[in-house]
Design brief:
The chain is an all-alpha fold. It contains 5 helices and no strands. Residues 53-80 form a coiled coil.
Length: 104
């Protein structure tokens, strides 16, 4: 099969189409072929998007992107913080560093 990226709307529409075909008595392998996805993709989509409306899927993707962006931001800030601590305190013995961090 050709590898293709689908939007959340397309995924939900394909899952709805699959549900209709299944209700008509079509077997799963035939459904997968008709909607153009593999069995693994179908089950992954069903797990992630099953029962969602299109608006909910859009919101989920937006939140996932924002979460990823915020995680990168936290990682960058943590690295900056570690670099600044190293620059400010230099090569202090490990025993002194906890004492300095506890000061107000």
């Amino acid at each position: 099969m050709v590898r293709k990226s689908y939007t959340p709307e397309q995924i939900i529409n394909k899952l709805r189409e699959a549900e209709i075909l299944l209700n008509q008595g079509t077997t799963l392998p035939v459904v997968w072929k008709k909607i153009g996805v593999s069995d693994c993709t179908y089950y992954r989509w069903r797990k992630e998007y099953g029962g969602m409306r299109i608006e909910q899927a859009k919101r989920l993707k937006e939140l996932e992107q924002e979460n990823s962006r915020l995680k990168r931001l936290v990682a960058d800030l943590s690295l900056d913080n570690a670099i600044l601590k190293e620059a400010a305190w230099g090569d202090l013995p490990p025993v002194i560093v906890p004492l300095l961090t506890s000061l107000p």
